[in-house]
Amino acid sequence: MKTVITNAEVEGRYVSVVIDGGNIVEIAQDVVTREAATQGANVVDADGGALIVGLHDHHVHLLAMAARREGINLDPLQTPLAFDDALRSASANSEAGWLRASGYDEHRHGVLDCRRLDALVGARALRVQHRSGLAWVLSTAALDLVLSGELPDGVELDSDGIPTGWLLRLDEWIADRIPPTAPSLRGVGAELAAFGITGVTDATPNLGQGRLELLRSAASDHSLPQRLVLLGVDDPAAVADFARVGPAKIVIDEVTGLDPDALARIISAHHLKDRAVAIHAVSRAETVTAVTALALAGTHPGDRIEHGSVLPDDLNAILASGSVTVVIQPGLVGERGDHYLSSVDSEDLPFLHRAASLQSAGIAVAIGSDAPVTSADPWAAIATAATRRTRSGNIIGESERVDARTALGWYLTDPLDPGSSPRRVVCGSAADLCLLDAPLDEVLAAPDSTHVRMTWVGGRLVHS
Ligand SMILES: [Zn+2]
């Protein structure tokens, strides 16, 4: 069905935009008055609100977002007492079976082990995910179920050789030992659409058949309406019916060891197959290793650094000359900034979550939320990029501020070319659109997701 959006602000002009067959087919000053254009069409009066291309979040983890929505979300809880209350009442108010919680943060929720969990949930099997996603803490009943005689590396033991409840970097190992869950992606799709997000790049490594099936079915019944780019897939043909494939995701981790030569060989192997790489690198040691390996292997169009949370500026030249895009997360400055100020090495602070200095060094930048590690709300991240303000009002890296329009632009780039210039509302392009309730300058003066009025993907209304 044809849709006509009248009186919309597009790049500072007030126009009418005609959508048909999933594409923008006309942008006109006068279409409102021409009956032929609006006849039989669904007419939306934008009332002067800005119409922009839909946002693309260049780094999310969709199934982890869905799992977090269904489990107990500890992230908003600010005290150990609130943490205890949440787990105790979840246990009392749910039926038997596994309990799952995520977002545990030792700085706000206190020290954790299986004994503290047992005191809260008794003999229930409970697993609590650390906010980093890299560790779980299990209750004793849960430990008994997953360990059953095994003791793989990563199971933390106390001085008497007894498991403390902590399982480090054993995510897939645990998943193989508990009843499978099939979290629904419908809520995730709706949440993203309400933010004006029309596409996402899922950065989960090694997605595997089971998870791909969940994504395929959510895409095909439109419960997940966004356009999808997947990094953790080897064969693009295997997902061509519902997604496109981006660079190959590579995770490096200073805890398990960093080897630039070995990493360079892995990068080269992907480049030989004409595939770019997306390297997860957070700490200084990891970003130095990743960029060194890229220099050794040579770069390929589309190569990316994911996060680059501490990125020393002596890496600038390689990143800029190799056209490597850094996919940043300004939202973390707001959500975790207060903790950074007390925990990050002082020599790393100037290089923490850089933004403006990347751009001025000629380095391509895009934004990914890394949801559910941080909120998927792009408007909150844009506001933080412009202010660099933490939750408690501290400022981190004032010189890294960018204006809100620049930060929004980093969400508007091509899904397969995140470091490029923003897409635009033009005739002939796909109708992936976000309608705001006010002119763009007004929205960007105080970015907030409540300004998102309607969202379309391929001409289909997915949020109103
Ligand atoms: Zn991630």
Q: Which secondary structure elements does this structure contain, and how are they paired or packed?
A:
Elements: E1 3-10, E2 13-20, E3 23-28, H1 35-38, E4 42-45, E5 51-53, E6 55-60, H2 62-70, E7 72-73, H3 80-92, E8 99-104, H4 106-109, H5 114-121, E9 126-130, E10 135-138, H6 140-147, E11 155-157, E12 163-168, H7 171-175, H8 186-194, E13 197-202, H9 208-220, E14 227-230, E15 244-245, E16 248-251, H10 260-272, E17 277-281, H11 284-297, E18 304-307, H12 316-321, E19 325-328, H13 331-343, H14 356-360, E20 365-367, H15 378-387, H16 404-409, E21 433-436, H17 440-445, E22 452-457, E23 460-463
Parallel strand pairs: 1-4, 6-13, 7-8, 8-9, 13-14, 14-15, 16-17, 17-18, 18-19, 19-20
Antiparallel strand pairs: 1-2, 2-3, 5-21, 9-10, 10-12, 11-12, 21-22, 22-23
Helix pairs in contact: 10-11, 13-15
Zinc ion is lined by residues 59, 61, 203, 370.
